[in-house]
Amino acid sequence: xxxxxxxxxxxxxxxxxxxxxxxxxxxxxxxxxxxxxxxxxxxxxxxxxxxxxxxxxxxxxxxxxxxxxxxx
Length: 72
Prior knowledge:
Elements: H1 3-37, E1 40-43, E2 66-68
Antiparallel strand pairs: 1-2
């Protein structure tokens, strides 16, 4: 393998590490906000009774960082 290959591998690894770190930090912040407001942080799990049909998000293909609870 030449030097270009190592640089590309390092660059891809660096980008993936940055993306993972940002998502981890966002998830931690959402978890803390949910706890402060009395909500339950569900992660990627949606309640079975929740449907997105008829909402602006009905075309969603994946969902993560879900927070559940009643406002006020």
